[in-house]
Design brief:
Distance between the termini: 35 Å
Largest sheet: 7 strands, antiparallel
InterPro entries: Papain-like_cys_pep_sf, Peptidase_C92
Number of helices: 15
Helix content: 40-55%
Order of helices and strands: HHHHHHHHHHEEEEHEHHEEHEEH
Number of strands: 9
Radius of gyration: 22 Å
Protein name: Permuted papain-like amidase enzyme, YaeF/YiiX, C92 family
Pfam families: Peptidase_C92 (PF05708)
Oligomer: single chain
Number of domains: 2
Organism: Rubripirellula amarantea
């Protein structure tokens, strides 16, 4: 089912599993470190807690991005499928909100009483866009009365319409049962995260109050979906996102780039207001591998899939680099890329395993060893990784890749090549976002 909404269903289910894995990692971390007598972290423990925190923020940003991606499409829907369409939107948004709350509470329950860990989680991680005091701010949003009321209202709507939503989910999901699993996930989490009034008051008293400017909108399915979007907007308001912005390249730029690209080229892209910009290194955070015939192999939050060109061209800035290989070697790399299709996204950014993949790992595992290509991984947040800007740096240096073209309207409103492209890349790479 090649449907953005179905992709969001898969993403929420995968993110729920991601946070389950994160909880297991956190428990192993707590059991293994010995800071009580030392009063500080060893370098390896510091890497572990940093990696854990970045993984949490990456998953959180993906959930918030999923909530933002909900769009009401009244004009394109018939009256017969209107309820079904928005029923699935509600399930996606409600499940995402429950996973968010459950994950935040898990972090709080494990670390809020440990002064050393809490101090560490409140440190800024500039490279990943994680601000100072982020742990405390997340806990404040968790106990904010408006947010608590919103989640309660979502739950009341779900309780009233559960049977209808279950039927809609089963019909929409088909044989994959993916949307039906959303109902299972909601049923598992909604009671798990419930707290008594006295528990809430105590938790609220422990955190500083925070004013929230948007009101929750009550009503039917469409209004509840909108309320979830508003709730997600409040949670990411500090990130200065612009949900009304629709990234896309001008048609003239698309035609020009289409005339240049050949199979094996790597797209490195940027959406100006994407939430994930705040948790990925550099100005250029994302990559996709062009495999020919108007298709790319690309890993997004719903996993590794073959996608149309609306994916790389649905950005504000695009850079294209070309491998310095023979055509037979490029064919081998493309065949490798296809073997990874269907794998889930790796929110832990762990390049030591290949059963889950981030976007740049698709490029890495497709080209590593082909024609003598060898990539040097860089340690970030305790993990050996390859960023999208690492790929651009190789191209600028003439190692393994060569620069082909770039479109970055904040620097030049035309497609640039050669020295002009290199100049743009050097002026944007490494810039704080």
């Amino acid at each position: 089912m090649n449907d953005p909404l179905h992709s969001n269903v898969l993403a929420v289910l995968d993110l729920a599993e991601h946070f389950d894995r994160l909880r297991s990692r956190a428990d192993q971390f707590i059991a293994s470190f010995d800071t009580g007598t030392r009063g500080f972290f060893s370098p390896s423990e510091d890497d572990d807690v940093t990696s854990l925190w970045v993984s949490y923020h990456t998953g959180r940003s993906a959930l918030l991005e999923t909530i933002h991606s909900l769009r009401n499409e009244f004009g394109s829907l018939s009256s017969a499928d209107l309820v079904a369409k928005h029923g699935i939107e509600f399930l996606v948004g409600y499940a995402a909100s429950l996973v968010l709350v459950d994950a935040a509470r898990s972090i709080r329950d494990r670390f809020s009483r440990d002064a050393l860990v809490r101090r560490k989680l409140n440190e800024p991680l500039v490279l990943h866009g994680i601000p100072q005091n982020s742990f405390d701010r997340i806990q404040e949003s968790l106990t904010d009365p408006r947010n608590a009321l919103a989640v309660r209202q979502f739950g009341q709507y779900y309780e009233v319409h559960r049977n209808e939503l279950q039927s809609i989910a089963n019909a929409y999901g088909g044989e994959s049962r993916a949307s039906g699993k959303l109902v299972d996930l909601i049923d598992a989490l909604r009671f798990h995260i419930q707290v008594s009034a006295s528990q809430y008051i105590r938790a609220r008293a422990a955190d500083r109050s925070q004013q929230v400017t948007h009101r929750v909108i009550r009503g039917g399915a469409v209004k509840v979906v909108y309320a979830i979007q508003q709730w997600g907007s409040r949670l990411v308001s500090r990130l200065s996102t612009n949900p009304s912005h629709e990234p896309s390249l001008p048609s003239s730029i698309v035609r020009e780039l289409n005339s240049m690209i050949v199979p094996g080229d790597v797209f490195v892209t940027r959406k100006e207001f994407a939430i994930t910009n705040y948790f990925l290194p550099g100005f250029w955070p994302h990559a996709a591998l062009y495999v020919g015939e108007g298709r790319v192999v690309e890993s997004l939050k719903d996993g590794v899939h073959v996608r149309g060109m609306e994916s790389p061209y649905g950005n504000d800035c695009v850079a294209i680099i070309r491998p310095k290989l023979q055509s037979t070697e490029i064919d081998m790399a493309i065949q490798r890329a296809h073997t990874h299709v269907g794998k889930p996204y790796d929110f832990d950014f762990d390049f030591t395993r290949s059963d889950r993949m981030v976007c740049t790992e698709v490029v890495y595992r497709s080209y590593e060893g082909v024609g003598g290509m060898q990539f040097e991984l860089t340690k970030r947040a305790g993990r050996q990784t390859l960023s999208a800007e690492d790929l651009l740096s190789l191209a600028v240096a003439g190692i393994h890749f060569e620069p082909l073209a770039v479109y970055c309207p904040s620097r030049n409103e035309t497609v640039c090549q050669s020295d002009a492209m290199t100049e743009i890349l050097r002026n944007t790479m490494g810039r704080e976002v």
